Amino acid sequence: MADILQDFIIRVPAARVYEAVSSAEGLNEWWTRAASGTPVPDARYELDFGPGHVWRAVVTKAEFARAFELRLAEADADWIDTIVGFELEGNDEATRVRFYHLRWRETNQHYRTSCHCWALYLRVLRRHLEHGETVAYERRLDV
User: Which stretches does DSSP call E strand in the chain?
Assistant: First the structure.
């Protein structure tokens, strides 16, 4: 199995990062077109990426300002049962983010594309939180 790992700093408190990676409103600012769900263990999320790409996930970890994790239950075949998560460590000024997307069954083209796309999405997340930038959903992989 293969994993995607990214470590980086966001210069805002961990509580703000947690809200951005765990709330539907936050996810819609940098990752999804439309999301719904509540960040509590065993809750279900719907992650809408456009027609034909409405995925479902289950919260496997939700610790305010410390960690958030989803297991993809309905998604593209390569993503099913993978784990997307964030570990956060910070103070009032900055947060170290340890992002992971675990349990890829193979390092196929979809894995390689996802490695690249996660880096772009996480940049949008950081820019949104640090600078208030908003990028339209359709342009997020172009910035």
Answer: 2-10, 34-36, 44-48, 54-63, 67-74, 83-90, 95-104
pTM: 0.96
Cα(113)–Cα(97) distance, integer angstroms: 21
Query: pLDDT value at position 1?
Result: 86
Per residue in 84-123, pLDDT (tens digit) is 999 999 999 999 999 999 999 999 999 999 999 999 999 9
Residue 56 exposure: Cα atoms within 13 Å on the Cβ side: 5
Report the SS3 class of residue 9: strand
Q: Which two tokens stand for residue 137?
A: 């959903």
For 118-142, the pLDDT digits (tens) are 999 999 999 999 999 999 999 999 9
Class of domain 2-135: alpha beta
Fill in the DSSP letter of residue 143.
-
